[in-house]
Amino acid sequence: MTPSEWPLQVVPRRATPLWQAGLITLVAFAGAILTRGLLLGFDNAAGLSATYFPAFILTTLYAGPRWGWGSLALVMVMGYFGANSVVATISRTGVIVQFGLSGFATVLVAAALRETLLRLEEAKAAEAKVQADLIATEQRFRMLADSAPVLMWVSKVDGSREFVNRAYLDFLGLDDAAALKFDWRALIHPDDLERIAHEEAQAVAAGGDFVWEARYRAANGDWPWIRSVSQRRYGPDGGLTGYIGVGFDVTDSKQAQADLTRINDLLAERVQAALAERDEAEAQLHRAQKLEAVGQLTGGVAHDFNNLLTVIIGALDLMQRHPGDAARRERMIEAAQGAARRGERLTQQLLAFSRRQALKPELVHVDELLIENEPLLRRAVGEAVTMTVTPGAGRAVSRIDPSQFEAAIMNLVVNARDATPGGGGIRVETQVRTLAAGEAEDAPAGDYVCLSVHDTGAGMSPETVARVFEPFFTTKEPGRGTGLGLSQVYGFARQSGGAAVIDSSPGRGTTVRIHLPLEAAEAEATETDPEAQLSPRGPARRVLLVEDDLSVGEMVEAMLIDLGHEVLRAEAAAPALTILERPDSIDLMVTDLIMPGGMNGVELARAAVALRPGLPVILTSGYTGETLGAASEAPWPLLTKPYPAEALAAIIDEVMGKAA
Questions:
Q1: What CA–CA distance (Å, rounded) separates 136 from 145?
Q2: Which of 150, 229, 483, 553 would disulfide-bridge 474, Cβ 3.0–4.6 Å?
Q3: How far apart are CA 631 and CA 647, in angstroms?
Q4: What pLDDT digit, counting tens, does each position of 321-368 carry?
């Protein structure tokens, strides 16, 4: 039987069963009647109180206030109707009233006492329930924490542990009591201790949580990597009471990260090696292509120059055999000069391809130059093919060599004519375009004047397009082309600061575009008097000629003498300086750029001007490679070889006119 089922309760309850309340009342009144019969008379108020008040108290406490009030009322009625006469009744009335007031007070106090006892009991029961719930909660938390495969702990503000789970104990190899006293900082690897202390100090200063990774010594002696995460916990008053944290092994992820880094480094090394191999392969391919181009270049140059030399040598031989035949001599001289001029053009095309040609750039209106050359272009195209010229660049100006620009247009138009069948068309047009970086080879981003030549021919395959700018590469039949036309166009465009691109595919024709840098300045109109180049204007001069090639020196000396000048000869810079140091008067020095002896023409000119301030100088050269940079920066004009006597006379007059 449980306490709630007992017939009599030591502690009252709020809801007492009826049978228990009646039983308690009967027992209490039985005891009261027995006590009255043994001790006191009924008519005494004190006796009544002593007899029945304990019964009222017991009934009120254990049966409830209603039973206490009922018992009091019953006793008072029984006492009143128990009188034998009117006088007895009157006399007992006063006793009953006193008894009733005392009983009322007694029941009221007993009811208050009952309520107090009940509240106290309920408070104890609630406390017991809370305690039981707390124990159950702690047990569940302990069970949950011990079942977790990670380290868990609850610590105070100073870091000392208040609770650790089973995984934590197993990691340390200690029991619960020893683990709570153990300083966890002693487990940190010495190499990580300073870093962890610094990170902890930063977290405390910032008022944040702790998150770090470090190596900790385990019970088995290993040093696994543990990632610790500690969060703040606060008490009921909102104050910091400590931390709750977890730690889990990240050794495998650390190893995986290290392996990944090592793999990345290895891949980077292999990629670098592969790139180096690719670069080496590309370099070898470029060298092979260069050797192939050089071979083609050598064969083409040898073929063309052998043809030219055949004409020149044959003409000279016939003149030597028939010195008295004036008509034949004139024809042979014209044939030899024509072959020499073709050789000069061939040299210019080679220099343009290698971007070593000595250009003479000036500001020109591209459309005006195109319109001036339109009649010549139409004669070159002929009647079988229709040509349309559409200047669209307006007053756009570019700094280019006009003669090389004209040669480039002619080469493009002639190539388009040869590729276009009868009845086809050629379209030549210009426009101003803005190029993005990388849009046209290596040309920088900016504004350009674009010259386009489009034909309606058969077009070319990608393999052919990739080689069209190579020297002596041609798709024409043998004997119909030298293969230098597009090479000259390419070299001219690149040397002018622009680019040449080609767009072609089988069945769609071909379009070649030359992009020339757009200049903001206006072109200056220049006019040349043809008569000025026919004969010298100035008086005879004393000229110092410095030329290391004896044949060239003799020819130039003869031209100067023919122009009426006196000539002093030197084959190198040192003899020339010796002549300049003498007191003899010298009006002009004409020097080659490239000479033996360690001093080029520009350096000689500077030394000569230092010896003779104001001395006019003319530079000459048939090769304008790296030396062209020094010549272009020098203040003296450059006369390119080969040159006729008229050109020599004109530049002498120009230089001496400026010096006068």
A1: 14
A2: 483
A3: 19
A4: 788 888 877 888 887 887 777 777 666 655 544 545 555 788 999 999
